[in-house]
Amino acid sequence: xxxxxxxxxxxFVQDSTEGPIDLYSYAGNSxxxxxxxxxxxxxxxxxxxxxxxxxxxxxxxxxxxxxxLSVDSLDSHRRWVADIxxxxxxxIDYPILAEAxxxxxxxxxxxxxxxxxxxxxxxxxxxxxxxxxxxLDPNAVQQPIEAVIVRRGSARRFSHAPIPRAALATVVxxxxxxxxxxxxxxxxxxxxANAVDDLASGAYVVGTDGGLTALxxxxxxxxxxxxxxxxxxxxDAAVALYWLVDLDEVFARLGDRGYRVAQLEAAIxxxxxxxxxxxxxxxxxxxxxxxxxxxxxxxPHAAGKSVMFHMAIGRHVRRAGT
Length: 322
Ligand SMILES: Cc1cc2nc3c(=O)[nH]c(=O)nc-3n(C[C@H](O)[C@H](O)[C@H](O)COP(=O)(O)O)c2cc1C
Description:
It contains 13 helices and 11 strands. It is an alpha+beta fold. It is globular, with a radius of gyration of 21 Å. The chain starts with 12 loop residues before the first strand and ends in an 8-residue tail after the last strand. Flavin mononucleotide binds next to strand 10.
């Protein structure tokens, strides 16, 4: 049974940058925040760990203990802590765990082979989409990929201006291109169209044929804002996109490691969305979201699926000099 809200978290003991941690003893009678990071030394995670250290007094005042988790070894964590302390002028006086990720690593070639054997994803349902989308002429993009990468930078503000329908089609097609991985966790892309030329505003699902099927028509800017943690970015953007995965199916084939595959594959779709949008002169940003509310919003079609990644694309309002 997966953990549900309200369940008691099972105890664990594992090594950390501050020695062995017994979760229950560490938490004592405090609240506990366990926050996880995908990799040591990445810019956003590094800033976040420093920020948590700076907020230490605020956590103490609220009787909250903090505990971090990151991929990579304890050795790497220790070097990372030294780097954060050096560059941000803080003391990291809370532990970082290392074993949780290693626990699902595969040690032997045979284990890898067995795991990979379950890697091929079952075909997604191929109901023909009711709305066909014409792609942009490939010559519409004049810049080489290197220039697009250099120009890319997350949009911080969108105008309400619409984007061409063919631009949406092209971005969605780029996001859906197969990723060269040894295991797959197929996601379905859902979207809220706020402002797309010749497309009624509403909620849609993207089909395997690259077309759209309308789930609900209407102006859902307010809902898109709410689903993106109440931020203006997805409410203002022309389109908010969400990649949802049937995790039960993925876990049945790939075990716990399936979660990493699902995250990685959806993030690759998100990364391609970034690049396709910028290649077409649009803006894009990745976003955080209310998981279950996104599923509910797109249900019944999305029932049983979990959100892995969320992006917004549209006409960005550039800051001076960008
Ligand atoms: C998975 C993911 C989630 C994000 N969530 C948010 C968010 O909730 N709000 C926001 O303003 N930006 C969000 N961002 C955008 C980051 O803030 C932005 O990528 C970061 O500032 C780095 O800037 P860059 O993309 O221009 O390099 C997210 C980005 C990603 C990849």
